[in-house]
Amino acid sequence: MRTLKALLLASCCVVCCLAQKESLTIGPADVLHIKVLEAPELEQTGRVTDAGTFPLIIGGSVNVAGLTPSGAAAAIAQALENGHFLLSPHVSVTIEQTTTQNITLSGEFARPGVYPLATPRPILDVIAAAGGLNGAADRKITIERHETKERIEYFVSNKSGVALDSNSLVIYPGDTIFVPRASIVYLLGDVGRPGGYAMTTADSKLSVLQVVAEGGGTLHTAVPAKARLIRKRGDGTYVELPLPLSAMQKGKTSDMQLQGDDIIYVPFSYLRNMALGIDSLISSAASASIYRF
């Protein structure tokens, strides 16, 4: 009966190990708890060396760095079997203490900083712990994995359904999340509320008509047919382009997507303001008030 119970227990351990979805990997200085079902005397707790190995009571040192607990258990079992200490041993490995229990949240969080994280968590949980994103945040954020240094781009939607559907991305202990400042477009001239507008819409995009509408529209003294677009080029210089704003407002011309640092200038009816140069408009944009879209 005892033999049957032992076999059932062993089978159960194997099934549970296979069914478990592990993601946290082992690193140097982590503390591991090792159990061997067939040999209780081999149970031990110890720390992973700086070289990423774990010294067993018998069987020598096994390289476990970068492995999940189940992967480390398989490696230790293989070492015991290769050394002819046990035949088909069943090993379990538990991470009792990890040295990478913090995550770094930098950039445009409401409360950036270093936060404790003992187990992997969905990304929205992590963002919420930092108070969410602030009003100047770009929604295209970057996650750097602690183990591999892989960088992952992630879009934080402000549409609830999209955000919840994309919450499968997991943050691991040691990861770093960076949130850049959102790009700004500027609306100047004869409009209701001139200033800079952060590109913080649901898809981080803004069109000409969206910005003009958010800025209170063109005033009755404006000349939208003479509107101009000042666009920053890759080399840091600016180019001036005609902007058919009046035709866009009347539906005769398609709306236009804007790029970060674009400046829209809607002139007043009197000629002095219609003749403002690029340098004057760039200076005005630099001192403009910034609004969240």
Describe this entry's structure for a reader:
The structure is a single chain. With 293 residues, this protein is an alpha+beta fold. It has 3 domains: 2-97, 2-Layer Sandwich (wza like fold), CATH 3.30.1950.10; 102-179, Outer membrane lipoprotein wza fold like; 184-292, Outer membrane lipoprotein wza domain like (Outer membrane lipoprotein wza fold like). It is 24% helix and 27% strand. The protein has 8 helices and 18 strands. It has helices spanning 2-19, 69-82, 123-129, 160-165, 208-214, 245-249, 271-274, 278-286, and strands at 31-36, 44-47, 53-55, 61-63, 91-97, 102-107, 113-116, 121-122, 140-144, 151-155, 170-171, 176-179, 184-189, 195-198, 228-232, 238-242, 263-266, 290-292. The strands form 5 sheets. A 6-stranded mixed sheet has the order 16-15-17-13-14-18, sandwiched between helices. A hairpin with a 5-residue loop joins β13 and β14. It is rod-shaped and about 95 Å long. The termini are far apart.
List keywords for this structure.
wza like fold, 3 domains, alpha+beta, 8 helices, 293 residues, Outer membrane lipoprotein wza fold like, rod-shaped, 5-stranded mixed beta sheet
CATH architectural name of the largest domain: Roll
Helix tally equals 8
Arithmetic mean of pLDDT = 85
Largest sheet: 6 strands, mixed
Radius of gyration using CA atoms only? 30 Å
**Regions with pLDDT < 50 over 5+ consecutive residues?**
1-21
What portion of residues is helical?
10-25%
Given the helix and strand composition, which structural class is it? alpha+beta
CATH-wise, what's the superfamily of the largest domain? Outer membrane lipoprotein wza domain like
Instruction: Estimate the global geometry from the Cα principal axes.
Output: rod-shaped
At the first level of CATH, the class of the largest domain is: Alpha Beta
CATH topology of the largest domain: Outer membrane lipoprotein wza fold like
Q: What string gives the helices and strands in order? A: HEEEEHEEEEHEEHEEEEHEEHEHHE
- Which strand order spans the largest sheet, edge to edge or round the barrel? 16-15-17-13-14-18
Strand portion: 25-35%
